[in-house]
């Protein structure tokens, strides 16, 4: 299977991050336990503070950002990987003049009922 990013519909997630789900076991016959999405946050935009019941990994592709995990803030950029433990409060802010773009892996696969906006 080959998925092309631009063929994946963009939508706004509950935390107000723009997403394109690339792989999700509920949306295709895939032997996966996780989901993979491409995420984008605009310059000066901050996602809503939230937490998931599941673990997440962000891999920053482009732009600069500020990641807040459990109240601690760290600047992030291309090549950085962020592990987010289950139930961790989190949000991310786009810092630069360009969009902050990253891949997001959720394990087990993302479900709306597993996300709590704070």
Structure characterization notes:
This protein is mainly beta. Helices cover about 0% and strands about 50% of the residues. Strand 1 and strand 2 form a beta hairpin. The mean pLDDT is about 95.
User: Helix count?
Assistant: 0
If you consult CATH, what is the topology? Jelly Rolls
Shape: globular
CA gyration radius, whole angstroms: 13 Å
Helices and strands, in N-to-C order? EEEEEEEEEEE
Query: Biggest sheet: strands, sense, closure?
Result: 6 strands, antiparallel
Please write the CATH class name.
Mainly Beta
Distance, first to last CA: 37 Å
What fraction of residues sit in β-strands?
over 45%
If you average the pLDDT, what whole number results? 95
Helix content: under 10%
Secondary structural class: mainly beta
Q: Compute the number of structural domains.
A: 1
State the low-pLDDT regions, or none. none
Strand order of the largest sheet: 1-2-3-10-5-8
Q: Please provide the count of β strands.
A: 11
CATH architecture: Sandwich
Write out the CATH superfamily name.
Jelly Rolls
Sum this structure up briefly:
The chain has strands spanning 10-12, 18-23, 35-41, 50-52, 55-62, 65-69, 72-76, 81-84, 90-94, 100-107, 115-117. The protein is mostly beta strands and 118 residues long.
Summarize this structure as a short list of keywords or feature phrases.
118 residues; mainly beta; six-stranded antiparallel sheet; 11 strands
